[in-house]
Amino acid sequence: MLDLVKSFSFREKSLWVETAIYVYLWVWYFRRVGAGLVDTSMGREETFGLLITMTIIVVILSIFSQIVLAIISPGESDAPADERDKLMAWRAGSHASYMLGAGVFMVAIHSLVNEVPTAGVVHRLILMLVAVEILTNALQIYYYRRGY
Amino acid sequence: MRFENSEMTQQALADKVGVTRQTIIAIEHGKYSPSLEVAFRIAKTFNVGLEDVFHYK
Q1: Quick check: A144 contacting B, CB < 8 Å?
Q2: What's the pTM value of the predicted model, to 2 decimals?
């Protein structure tokens, strides 16, 4: 297991950690806000306050994790992305953008048909953005594991 | 080719060519086809022609 992790490039390690942070924190957030909006225990101000807090926590944890990774992988962190890194990032982003387009379209239609309140629409759109970000990272990890 | 050149390590080749060690591993395992620029840089590192390093299947 340790040998497997050692074979990861800095970018791949960084993707794993970033994805874990996104999945853990955003799943918690959307479960909390989703339940709060459905049973009306959370108002618009509360959900947006929690969204801003969550965004700040995600940014701080991402920066902190990158610093820790840079410390345990000396010499790798400052290496620029090579052509394979860039190609995989571009491919993953390209594929994920289709999901973003489809997701935004579905949210728009669903919100129009069901007359979803503004807070619900905004959170559905943010959910799509987060899901696409996680998908982009997951696709890059898949390409790294596949070799290309 | 690395072993015929003083057993050059993957990291040393990666540094000379300007890619990561993982990219060299992917190229050696036939999982990644490098750009022409990187292919030429690898061939130049070993002072051989492109077709001595890469083969089209």
Answers
A1: yes
A2: 0.82
